[in-house]
Amino acid sequence: MSRVAGYALALDMTARDFQEEAKKNGAPWSLAKGFDTALPVSRFLSTEELKDPTAIKMWCKVNEEMRQDGTTTDMVFSIPYLISYISQYFTLHPGDLVLTGTPAGVGPVQPGDVISAGLGDLLTMKFNVAQRE
């Protein structure tokens, strides 16, 4: 963990219409996961600001309705385990992001929705869902 520079929120969005079409055709999901603005990322917290990432609350609201609410203790795999595991298969470089998964509650959003998310009371992010062009 000495190589971890910090922590952030990243919302791994999916274009479900593209995903369903790709599934139906046995095609890759690349368009469903790699569209512009598919991964909003918050500002970063240094390891000094977030000294213990093992028990931090994570939450996400859509239009002020709580959709996801959990802590990092709820994760199936710990952050150190995930980093150790993936580094056996991928070379990690300074600046790489490692996404760890999400609490239960993933659901659809629509243009005009407002998404807010946070890590405890240390960090919040907020953005509007826009129509894909």
Automatic annotation (TrEMBL):
This protein's record includes keyword Metal-binding: yes
Entry keyword set: Metal-binding
SUPFAM superfamilies documented for this protein: FAH
GO molecular function, one term: oxaloacetate tautomerase activity
Keyword Lipid metabolism: no
Gene3D superfamilies named in the record: Fumarylacetoacetase-like, C-terminal domain (3.90.850.10)
Catalytic activity as recorded in UniProt: oxaloacetate = enol-oxaloacetate
EC number(s) per entry: 5.3.2.2
Pfam families: FAA_hydrolase (PF01557)
GO CC annotation terms, alphabetical: mitochondrion
Domain of life of the native organism: Eukaryota
Domain Fumarylacetoacetase-like C-terminal: 3-129
Matching PANTHER family: ACYLPYRUVASE (PTHR11820), ACYLPYRUVASE FAHD1, MITOCHONDRIAL (PTHR11820:SF7)
UniProt record similarity statement: Belongs to the FAH family.
Protein name: oxaloacetate tautomerase
Organism the protein comes from: Homarus americanus (American lobster)
